[in-house]
Amino acid sequence: MPTGRLAEDQGHGDRAVGHDRQDVAHTISAMARTIPARSSPMKHRSGWLPIAIPVVLLLLALRYVAIHGVVREADEGTEAHLFQLLMPVQLAVMAYFALTWLPRSPRGTLPVLALQAIAAAAVFAAVYWIEHTGPTV
Asked: Nearest to residue 50, comparing CAs of 106, 14, 105, 101?
């Protein structure tokens, strides 16, 4: 069956437009099938962001120890405030990641969630170590 302008010329008008839409939808769905899907949940922001946040916080902790040594200060510094702001963000992104990816790909999601939890635990361990070692200034 002719489509487009040729169909209109032959008097098929509206029927040809309907077929054109179906052809376009079929072409788009075929293109979507040929585009490779992101197989790893780690490639999405919600997968790597909860790992990047603790890495940044650990670097800040190392910077703090390099500058001040392992001492506790009476007043909280910038690092402590950043920790207090970014850790809830990290936990919220982890929850979003778990809720969106566990139903889609449980086998691929669990290792990423474990890595996110280990990264969070490393930051808590670093903060505990800084808080409980060294004299108070």
From this structure: 101
Supply the pLDDT for residue 113: 94
Which residues, at least 6 apart from 133, have a Cβ–Cβ distance to it below 8 Å?
70
* In the chain, domain spans: 5-34, 41-132
Alpha-carbon gap, residue 128 to 64, rounded angstroms:
14
Q: Phi/psi of residue 136, each to 5°?
A: -85, 135
Cβ atoms < 10 Å from Cβ of 48: 19
Residue 49 predicted with pLDDT over 50? yes
d(CA 49, CA 38): 16
The answer, as to whether pTM is greater than 0.70, is: no
